Automatic annotation (TrEMBL):
Domain of life: Bacteria
Family classification: Belongs to the NADH dehydrogenase family.
Keywords: FAD, Flavoprotein, Oxidoreductase
A GO term, aspect molecular function: NAD(P)H dehydrogenase (quinone) activity
Biological process per Gene Ontology, one example term: aerobic electron transport chain
Cofactor(s) required for function per UniProt: FAD
Pfam family, one: Pyr_redox_2
UniProt domain FAD/NAD(P)-binding: residue ranges: 4-298
Gene3D superfamilies recorded: 3.50.50.100
Protein name, per record: Oxidoreductase
Species of origin: Dactylosporangium sucinum
Matches recorded under InterPro entries: FAD/NAD-bd_sf (IPR036188), FAD/NAD-binding_dom (IPR023753), NADH-Q_oxidoreductase (IPR051169)
Length: 389
């Protein structure tokens, strides 16, 4: 009997995990199924581009996994039964597994009254396309309010302002905008905001959203024809509905090999997993975390199934890449635990580096052998059904 591995979600983390497993494990011993709601791999780090510009390149998952023994199953996951080791899809189908890789990612954290009804977000392709259609309807002089002060907010506000200089774009944040950046990077960000005409409202928590803008915690109104909500991400509720040990935010608690601390046949990667980083600091939800988490999980699964030593490589950070429109950017150097260093690359050079990183991340999904030689090991017979410790 083949060992059944089911990977839920084909974002950066899920797609990398499936491809790496296929190149670590022999096809005669394993059956790998990649489940995804959409037929394509979507470059989520480009959603702000999709919302303001042309369509992104389509990457069918069948092409991504071509030449491997990964089977693609299109379907939306509605439930996971970790006791029965089964996954339920929206069409009523059930998939059994011996090892589960949970990579369903995250969605927008919309926890303010009116935001779900009146604000757009960028947590996926359908949402980005809805925002693009709405922006296209706006006449010159219309206003756009981006709520949030993190990477997504900064990239969305600058992208919209650059693409539509005829719009009045503003950004509102509970704390500072980009306040974690180095002095050099923050100064450059302010210059870009000024150049693009982006109005910045810092220390301005939004308490409510309606059809004409937002209301702050002090009762002030921020008028907007379109509000874009980028104030954080939330996990899908599926894991929290199981007996898996999850954190308060719904992330599955995992060890350094991305293995669930409560269910050894379940691994969680990407935004879905709460994993320790350097110094024990939890990894943040990001592509920079998700891909190394996928590598770690795939290597650990393969090692356990083939009776080899389990590698554990601490996941660390190197840079934060921020696009400020298509021709400007910031590459912030960071410590292994993600704190900003004084050094940063800014301007056109940073924009080129950011594009190289994004293009490389997308390309590597379908070409894992560039970073990983194909060495398919045979599964130890005793390990077919129960992973080892």
């Amino acid at each position: 009997m083949k060992h059944r591995i089911v990977v839920l979600g084909a974002g950066y983390a899920g797609a990398h995990a499936a491809g790496r497993l296929a190149r670590r494990l022999h096809r005669d011993d394993t059956e790998i199924t990649l489940v995804n709601a959409e037929p394509d791999f979507v470059e989520r780090v480009r959603m702000h581009q999709l919302a303001t510009g042309p369509d992104l390149r389509h990457r069918p998952l069948t092409g991504v996994v071509a030449g491997t023994h990964v089977a693609v199953r299109q379907g939306r996951v509605v439930a996971v039964d970790v006791e029965r080791r089964s996954v339920e899809l929206a069409d009523g189908a059930e998939l059994g597994y011996d090892t589960l890789v949970y990579a369903l990612g995250s969605t927008a954290a919309v926890d303010v009254p009116g935001a779900a009804e009146h604000a757009h977000h960028l947590a996926g392709r359908p949402a980005a396309l809805r925002l693009r259609a709405r922006l296209a309807e706006l006449p010159a002089g219309a206003s756009v309010l981006v709520v949030g002060g993190g990477l997504t907010a900064i990239e969305a506000a600058t992208e919209i302002a650059e693409r539509r200089p005829d719009l009045a774009v503003a950004i509102a944040a509970r704390d500072g905008v980009g306040d974690w950046l180095s002095d050099k990077a923050r100064a450059h960000l302010r210059r870009v905001f000024d150049r693009l005409g982006v109005t910045v409202h810092e220390h301005t928590p939004v308490a409510r959203v309606d059809g004409t803008g937002a209301v702050t915690g002090t009762g002030d109104r921020l008028p907007a024809d379109v509000t874009v909500w980028t104030a954080g991400f939330a996990t899908h509720p599926i894991a929290a509905a199981t007996s898996l040990e999850v954190a308060a935010n719904g992330q599955i608690v995992v060890d350094g090999t991305m293995r669930s601390v409560s269910h050894p046949d379940v691994y969680a990667v990407g935004d879905a997993g709460l994993a320790p980083g350097v110094g024990g600091k939890p990894l943040r939800m990001s592509c920079a975390s998700g891909i190394p988490m996928a590598w770690q999980a795939a290597d650990a699964i393969a090692a356990r199934l083939t009776g080899r030593p389990v590698p554990v490589t601490p996941i660390r950070y190197f840079v934060q890449c921020i696009s400020l429109g298509r021709r400007d950017g910031i590459i912030q150097l960071v410590t292994p635990d993600d704190r900003a260093k004084p050094s940063a690359v800014t301007g056109r050079a940073a924009a080129r580096i950011k594009e190289f990183v994004c293009a490389g991340a997308g390309w590597s999904v379908a070409h894992p052998t560039v970073l990983l030689p194909t060495r398919r090991h045979r599964v130890t017979p005793a390990e077919h059904l129960t992973p080892t410790a």
